[in-house]
Amino acid sequence: MKKDKDIEKFLIRDFKEAKQKILKAYFWENRIAWAKALILVIFLILWGRIFYLQIIRHGYYYKKAKERSIVTYVVKAPRGQIITSDGVIVATNKAVFQLYVDVNVIKNKEDEILYKLSKLLGEDLGNLKEKYYLEKKKCWGRVLLKKDLRWDEIAKIMVRLYYLPGVIVEVESERYYPYKDIYFHLIGYVSRITKKEYLRLKDKGYSIEDFIGKRGIEKAYESYLKGKNGFIEIERDAYGRLGRIVARHKPIPGKDLILTINHKLQMEAYKLLKGKRGAIVALSPENGAILAMVSSPSLNPQKFVEGFNPKEWKRVILSKKKPFLNRALSAYPPGSTYKVVTALAALQNGIIKDISQTYFCPGFFKYGKRIFRCWKFKGHGNVNLIKAISESCDVYFYNIATKLDIDYLAKFSRKLGLGEKVLNWPEEKEGLVPDREWKIKNKKEPWYPGDTINTSIGQGDLLVTPIQLVRLYMVIANGGYLYKAYLVKAIKDLRGKTIKFNPVIERKININPRYLSWIRRGLIEAVKSGTGKEAFIPELLVAGKTGTAQVTSKNSRLEYHAWFVSYAGRDKPEIVTVVFIEHGGHGGSSAAPIAREIYKAYFNINEFSDSINGFQKKDQ
After folding, report:
1. Is 191 a catalytic residue?
2. Model confidence over 552-567: pLDDT tens digits?
3. Is the distance from CB of 590 to CB of 581 less than 8 angstroms?
4. What value does the CA radius of gyration of the chain take, rounded to a whole number of Å?
5. Which of 173, 295, 298, 336 is an active site residue?
6. Whole-angstrom Cα distance, residue 62 to residue 239?
7. Is 351 in contact with 364 (CB distance < 8 Å)?
8. What domains does the chain contain, in order, with CATH numbers?
9. Which of 481, 483, 142 is nearest to 283 (CA)?
């Protein structure tokens, strides 16, 4: 037994040794094949990795490599020009050299770069740092460190550009307003886009460095004026120094706007309002084209491009004169200029049956326990419609108001364009045409007959804008057509392709032509011998209505807004104008003389011809 076990152990040991020898011989004899297999596996792994990096992830790594070696800068497109109907360019562009600093490139060496620039520009290092860090908070990528570089400053920087990594001098198109504050409220202005605006508009091709329209025409027609930005790709080394230009895509300029504005009339209107708070709007009764629109006081729109210093900005926003306020589009009580609406509503409603119908004016009107005064203390005596308009008799309209339903009057006023925006600009007010529903909703009390009496002469809660009022008188001048007021008559691109805008009639107001002729007679008489005689011009037929709106000042003192709304022409009405002077006193003495000067400028009438005609008239 023991012998058998020893034999068994011997056989097992020999089998293991034989197996090891066989395996060792097998691997040794096939070592080349195994080496090939291992190399093949390694090759497949490397090839797979290369395929992943070069093919699948090619775009990602190409972009990363490009970002490190090539930098892309936006080339801002020039905005379209704004040109008046008589060919005067009132908003254009000029070439300026701007100094930019790339925030990402000068990171960790900002002090060194800013120190070098302060020496080259001769500026205080502290001021330069303050400006850099303030602008860095507002901007992404690049900081505009200095605008409109001089030639000597450009030369100093360019010859040392190799030692100023991250510093870029670019020539750009900057908005330029040659007529400064004359066109501010009409054209508006541009300023640098905010981060909020950029995030909203970046998909429309805007850059964080762009300027964008903020008010007026610049904002309303932004999509036309804004061109398409180009870009430039430049090689950049590891130190942030710029090298050769790799690619360049030219910007496409914006489209030009041709306005309906008459430049000569705009200049005259601005001159006449200088030093006053008010507005002048003039338009054509034939098509609604705006010929002039001025609000005073005003601002220089160029300052929004160049930038205000803190003291200047504080002075502007705290000014009691409110230069930001566009008074042509703001709402005020219309005073007696509204009486034509009351008269037309009463005629349409059968309350006034004929111009021979009269009311006696003793200087006051008693209704219940209340007494309503006429502006003329001694009264006007017996007054018909023509005299009521020409001499602006309040008592005549008080009598009418007691028979007139306020809801009908409000509806008729809205039909004439009151209570709605005209240009639909953000800064424009709708005004207010009160009625029963409005008073219950806003004042929690019913409408009283005394409210209608106040409204009938343009007082109470009634509010209108100058541009609404001039359109209302346009309807009287042209026979009942309410045209859509417009400022742009054509849009042109670089190729000369033109989009023209035709006049649009918002609605035809069905007013009996006989009623309109009576209103016109009253307006003509007002200028010939009534409250608006300061607007009389012998060579022209001028028709208009004065207005003096009572308002309470902050000191609880009674003050007056002065109005004069009129139209003029040689054979037919050619221009309609509203003159509004805030706290200007009486319309006849403050606003009517300004309208007279407007018409003289528009029709090229000078003082010499005026006096000759006056003498001829006396001789006759």
Report:
1. no
2. 766 667 789 999 999 9
3. yes
4. 39
5. 336
6. 20
7. no
8. 71-258 (3.90.1310.10), 265-320+333-619 (3.40.710.10)
9. 483
